[in-house]
Design a protein that fits this description.
Blueprint lengths: L1 H10 L10 H14 L12 H10 L5 H14 L3 H7 L1 H7 L6 H19 L7 H5 L6 H10 L10 H9 L8 H11 L5 H14 L28
Helix pairs in contact: 3-9, 5-7, 6-7, 10-12
Length: 232
C-alpha cells in the first residue's frame, strides 16, 4: 500500500501556476505598450481583400513566405473580380511555395466568388459573415477584423496560445478558451493591440523550444520554469 502511494506521488503532476493577478496583467501590457505603442502585423496587403487572402494563405506558413508569394500575385489581382479572372491554375502557380497551396488556391478563388455574389465584392466587417467564406476560420476572421477594421479581437495562433499559457495570462486547453479568457482580463485600453503584442512576443522571444527569457521584458512577472538562459 505504501508502494502504491509512492508511485501515485511520483506520477502526480505539479500544480499549475496561478494566473497573473489583474495588477500584473496590466503591468505586462503597460510594458508591451511602452516598447511598441503601435504594433503591426507582418503580412503585406493593400486593402481588406488582399489582407483576407494573405491571412488565408498564412495558415501553416510563415508570413515571410506568404509575402514572397503574394508580391506578384497582388500586383495582378487586388480585387475579387481580378482574382477570379486569373483562375485557380494561375493562383496556384503563384503560391506553390506555400504549404497546402493546392487547397489554398481553390479557397482563394471560391471565397472571391462568394464575396462577389453575396457581399458586393466587399470584405464583411463581422465575424459570422467572414467565417462563412471558404478557408476562413475564427482565427483568420479575427485577424482581419483586428488589423483592417480596428476591432478589439484576439486571434489565437500557436504563439499567442503558448504565451498565454506560459505566463500564465488566461490558461486554456483550446484556442477558444484562451481567447475568451484574454478578452475578460485584458484592460480595455490595451485590448486592440494585445493580439499583436502577444503574437510577436511568442514569435521572437517566448519561443517554443528555446525561450529567450534573459531579454524578456516581463520575465520577472512570468511564472514559467525553467527560465531560458543566454547562450555564449
Amino acid at each position: 500500500m505504501a508502494k502504491a502511494a509512492s508511485r501515485q506521488n511520483a506520477t502526480r503532476r505539479p500544480a499549475a501556476p496561478r494566473p497573473l493577478s489583474p495588477a500584473e496583467v496590466r503591468e505586462v501590457f503597460r510594458r508591451f505598450h511602452a516598447i511598441d505603442p503601435e504594433p503591426k502585423g507582418e503580412l503585406d496587403y493593400v486593402n481588406a481583400y488582399t489582407l483576407l487572402v494573405a491571412v488565408v494563405l498564412s495558415a501553416q506558413a510563415t508570413d515571410v513566405g506568404v509575402n514572397r508569394a503574394t508580391k506578384a500575385l497582388f500586383r495582378l489581382a487586388d480585387t475579387p473580380e481580378k482574382m477570379v479572372a486569373l483562375g485557380e491554375d494561375v493562383v496556384r502557380e503563384h503560391i506553390k511555395t506555400i504549404g497546402l497551396f493546392r487547397n489554398k488556391a481553390k479557397n482563394v478563388i471560391t471565397l472571391s466568388e462568394r464575396l462577389i455574389a453575396d457581399f458586393g465584392s466587399a470584405v464583411p466587417a463581422d465575424r459570422d459573415s467572414l467565417v462563412s467564406l471558404p478557408g476562413v476560420g475564427r482565427k483568420t476572421a479575427n485577424v482581419v477584423l483586428n488589423i483592417f477594421f480596428q476591432q478589439p479581437t484576439i486571434a489565437v495562433d500557436t504563439h499567442l496560445f503558448r504565451v498565454s499559457n506560459r505566463l500564465p495570462l488566461a490558461p486554456g486547453k483550446t484556442p477558444e478558451q484562451v481567447e475568451a479568457g484574454l478578452e475578460r482580463i485584458i484592460p480595455p485600453e490595451y485590448l486592440l493591440h494585445a493580439h499583436h503584442w502577444l503574437i510577436l512576443h511568442g514569435r521572437y522571444l517566448c519561443k517554443a523550444r528555446a525561450p529567450e527569457c534573459w531579454r524578456c521584458p516581463v520575465s520577472d512577472l512570468c511564472r514559467f520554469e525553467p527560465k531560458g538562459t543566454a547562450r555564449g
